[in-house]
Give the backbone structure.
Amino acid sequence: MNWLFVITGAMIGAPLRYLTDRAVQRRHDTVFPWGTFTVNVVGSLILGVLAGAATAGAASSSTQLFLGTGLCGALTTYSTFSYETLRLAEEGAGFYAVANALGSVAASLGAAFAGVAVAEAIWL
Amino acid sequence: MEAQRPKAFGEPTDPDIDLSAPVPAPGTSRRGGPARGQGQILAAVAVGGAIGAAARYGASLLWPTPADGFPWTTFAVNAVGCAVIGAFMVLITDVWAAHRLVRPFFGTGVLGGFTTFSTYAVDIERLAGGGHARMGLAYLALTLIAALAAVWSGVWTTRRLVAWRRA
């Protein structure tokens, strides 16, 4: 049963990443990968809220598997993030590569902290 | 942020979407039309994502991480996924004229679903909040360095192998 929660969540999260990436990348003509940046920050925010809720006992294990391991796990990606960073560096956009690497980590971490804080404000 | 897209190598910057792919005009499209093509891509991404996420979940069951321990399993999952996408993108761009659903299925779906940024970020928050700030900081830096080294190694090794085979 646990596997089903993970798989169902991932079957929503992965296409959501694809659609978000498409929608975001079409809106601008820069080399900066805003699409992947967006899904990683949003996914970290949701997982932060979920982690805070779980600590407060407000999220069941099935919710954590579906929303956390499945949906947020598949919505966010490290492989695409690192590949895009490498390509930026190779194409001579070194500033964008560094900005993407440090910006993604900083923004996602900030989102995770904010998510946990929001959850604690609600459930604790 | 504005910058032109210089082309040093053939591989695309964004492995998830192919914006250069022509979208057929309505009425003149291939059989089934663009809506059907888009539906097939979404299905390939969904199935691939489910496989990748299930593999990541399986890894977390095989090698569970204690609550206040270094998240080695997620670290390894992300590093492996990065090495594989590097090799995959070179193969699919320079070597293998693959079916149009291979990249959405494997690159966007399987590898995107296997690796995770949200668990990485929240695990750092959990470590910092639990009084293990130094471990959290080490995990933050090590994952970033390992992931970038892995994707670079994957791309570099595969390009060398391709060049060697063609020589």
